[in-house]
Amino acid sequence: MDDHTEPHAARVHLHDPAPAGFDPFDAAPQELARHGLPRRPDRGSEPDLAALWERKATHYRDFEHLPPLVIEPSPPLPGTGPALGPDPVDSCGYSLTSSAGPFTSLFLTWTVPDLRFDPDPFGINSIHVFAGLGFLDVHTQLTVNAAQTVTCSLWAQGVGTIGLGVRPGDVISASLCLNTNAAGTAAYFFTNETTGQTMSVSVDTGYPPAVTVDAGVTRDGVLRPGQTLAGFGTVYFDEISAYNSAGHQSLLSGQAITMTDGATVLATPYALTDYAFKVVRGR
Question: Which of 54, 73, 197, 207 has CB 3.0 to 4.6 Å from 160, enough for a Cys bridge?
Fold first, then answer.
């Protein structure tokens, strides 16, 4: 399977996965792009980002690189209205706005929580664990019903539901990169650290350069008023690195967002280090 465009969305590009024994350190830029892998940053002009790339390339070298699979294609990309950060009505986490040029990449890992059903007039609870780079979004989407049956999937903005298996208890890593070209070319690289599998895909979004990065948990309360929040315990976010033209920026230096329902606190973010935080469900 060569790099090609899927008929369901002309902007989505699927790539042959890196073969067994592929050495990213010896690969030319064209070879990395052919396999949907992030470009190798220049050590001189981007030393921090280059060091991160080298560490991740070493870590993922022997993982199983799966052919990209889109299970449920995304509808057409929405228009690019005003960029809005997570809303405390339905979200909890951190959001950072750049004051030194657009963000071009975001790297992070998170835990997939198990859920406990909380009685709900809709008969189901749903939450997303999310990360965002400008208008790009990545979600681990979870639901739980009254029988305590949990469903789980991975979704990417502009692509759809990704066929990389995820389940409660897994640790997921994501790399989001957004080019500042006119096509707004985005590259996603996903890893299930628990199963040792990766999948990558790229998409021409038409999006403008990203001025915000964010991550956290959301309950989609705006779409379903009256929805209760599933019991999820604690979700951990780690190895968070965001980069703009000034280099590494700490997401944790941005705005902390507590999810509330009136005077009731539903979920709270807690900084752990400059690179990690947790979201804790209210009791």
Answer: 73
pLDDT tens-digit map of 181-215: 888 889 999 999 999 999 999 888 888 999 999 99
Task: Judge whether 145 lies within some domain.
Answer: yes
Look at residue 240 and tell me if it is in a domain.
yes
Residue 206 inside a domain? The answer is yes
- Confirm whether 20 is domain-assigned: no
How far apart CA 220 and CA 264 sit, in angstroms, is 17
Query: 190 lies in which domain range?
Result: 65-74+86-281
In the chain, which residue ranges form alpha helices assigned H by DSSP?
A: 29-34, 47-60
How does DSSP assign 159-195, residue by residue? TEEE-S---TT-EEEEEEEE--STT-EEEEEEEETTT
> CATH number of the domain that 198 lies in?
2.60.120.700
Q: Report the length, in residues, of the chain.
A: 283
**DSSP letter, residue 252:** G
